[in-house]
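Lab meeting, action items carried over

1. Structure of the two-component assembly. Owner: GW. Status: complete.
Input record:
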Amino acid sequence: MNRVVVTGLGVVSSIGIGASAFWEHLLQGRSGFSPVESFDTSKYHVHLGGEVKGFSPEDYVSELDPASVGRSSLFAIAASRLALEDSELDLSSLDLSRAGVSAGTTSGEPNEIERFDDSRLAGELESAGPGILTRYPCHHIPAYVAAELGFGGRNIMLPAACAAGTYAISHAYDLLRSGKADLMLAGGADSFSRITYSGFAQLKAIAPERCQPFDLNRQGMIPAEGSAMLVLEPKDRAVARGARIYAEIAGYGLASDAYHMTGGHPEEEGSVRAMTHALRESGVAADEVSYISAHGTGTPTNDLHETRAVKMVFGEAAYRVPISSVKSMIGHTMGAASAIESAVCALAAYHDRIPPTMNLTDPDPECDLDYVPNEARDLRVDVAMNNAYAFGGVNASLVLRKFRG
Amino acid sequence: MSSVPRSVVITGVGVVSSLGDSPAGVHDALALGRYGFGPVSLFEVSGIDSPVVAEMSRFDPKVYMGTGNLRPLDRICQLTISAAHLALVASGWTQEMRVEHGVGLVLGTMFSGAGTIGRFDHIGISKGPRFVKPLDFANTVINAATGQASIWHHLRGINSTVATGSSSGLSAIAYATDLIRNGVASALVVGGAEELSLESLFGFHRAGLLSSSGAEGAVPFGAARDGLVLGEGAGLLVLEEREAAASRGANILAEVTGHASSFDVARGGCAERATASMSQAIDQALEDAGLTPNELDFVSASANGGRLADRCEGEAILQSLGESVPVTAIKSMLGETLGAGGPIQVIAALESLRTGLLPGIRGLTRVDEEIPLKGVSDRACEIEGCRALINSFGLDGNACAVVVERT
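Predicted assembly:
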């Protein structure tokens, strides 16, 4: 079995494009929220979103026609280009038939189905293009990334909703450790959508003013968009080329609640199993974990359930592990979220700094762990765990370790 | 992850299709050359003139789901749950056993619940965002059918959805096979599902991929083929690690001995490269199974009547396996069921191996001269042997091939 390391990071987010801008702004506690511009929110009771501004596809897409590709795919291509640049890989030295793409998403290209619906409602379906076939189905995201980059290896989309990024990274890790690929781009992407926004608005899950995970007055999440792609390589290849190694993938755990489509399990059944399994596979004891990147959406129920689950797995050690939610700054990027948060874990393990949970001013007595309120912290990060939970009762935990040769 | 690859076996299958819901019954219909193409009755068609589809117009979820609450479940969820029910019953996994052992679910789909997503959006824009229903919202995520089926059947293990376009279902089988081989899982319900929707039908129509003459044109490898007939259905299998299956006394139907996936970076823009990519998937699947081409007893082709895709696949079969291998193409009768297609091909192939009868390619009276396959026929023929290759190739990049061996 090969060991697998993270050697490049690409992020597209509302607080920065590129891993270093993103990381710098995350540590500063910047907010990426602004009034929604991509559709009219006057009929909604909420208006904020984490849209990506100032994104120019032509800066990243050279082989394909950007107009023929959906927005989530464009984000994924940009994040992939940025990650490859960050990795300083010389693509000409690689066998691209063994370079693959594994991606996750919640909604794929929801703007494409919206465009189709607009045509239908206007009675102009006859004039609608074939985008519902050539751009909409979610497998196009990794496929367009690979077509842009010439990657002929394994190409797969694992749409596991808001845990999809972790599913995609876990699969890439399996392909690399079993020798089925030499290089994988793995992560997730989603784009801002009135479908997603309407749904969460009806669930009364969107916060009107700020996202404040674990705060007593938290009112919900804020929908957002973006992408993160990670360059993953077998350790030996990365070391041989003198690559900068952010972190090593130590293991993962995936488990299903089989209980409720949109809510967690009352006894945290699946999330506990996912964490426990990830720790066991990684050969890491609970008290060795330095940092947890929370799913931390900011909804009343998620944050409470997540806190309980961490206590069940970590026992007394739960009070000593710093936990933070970057969703307090960038919102919930759906299928990109757990990929972005995996990148956060890799950056934390590399820089020995952890980002804060912003807007946490009034602690909830039932959420009584260390959530790194409002200020980034210097901390030696030997082991980082990323937790993600999703519609469908999906739970995923990923463990990354500081690279030690 | 264990270091010695483990053997992966099939211990039960379930299918719901336009040709019925029992593997033997579906296979009988295929061997007789039956098909059920007709107009759309499920939804109002706009933007397309009288399309012909392979619809499951008589599908009744209550047969498989009893008195359970069907209200939160859209069509693809019901198709998935029904086929999974049949597979679980056939494999002998009771609810208690499933909960105890943490059996997982891996589902391939191309369009997922596009019809539900479209209806949800339609209400939001026509009536206003305050009129959309939270119950429907749960089904707008692409993994909705996987989540709903895991809840219905108490599947607590890995819950993964796989999308690689029209090969999604066979890719799910390949993905699940690796999870078991690598020791990440020991028992999984795996396969694919697809519902007919205006969204998918319109997409294929607009791209010029639907047959303009229905059954007459949708003849795989046929000289006069002019496109596909879109269909729907679900096919699910129970995959298990061989020793664990044997120790619980399971009935082992077959082994998944090899698989491979390839990706064409030109995404169908160049016929030669598409053919090479498909040929690579076949070669590597055989290599993974440790077989030479002449040890294969037949091929279940992905071909659906598409002009270019069928030619590329035919050439790939010729290049990798030669002209005489027996080839069937059951989409001539079931239609192109996208994510459900590959798993239904596997289920039909197991029946062909069991009965020694290979369905013909319906309507294939004249083979395209550019695809000189000798092992094709419009009639069922007798075969001997135990090994089949299943192809699931999309023209937009992904090709997946799986080898199964009847035990």
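2. GW to write a short summary for the group page. Key points so far: Chain B touches chain A through 79 residues (CB under 8 Å). Residues 12 and 20 of chain B are 17 Å apart (CA to CA).
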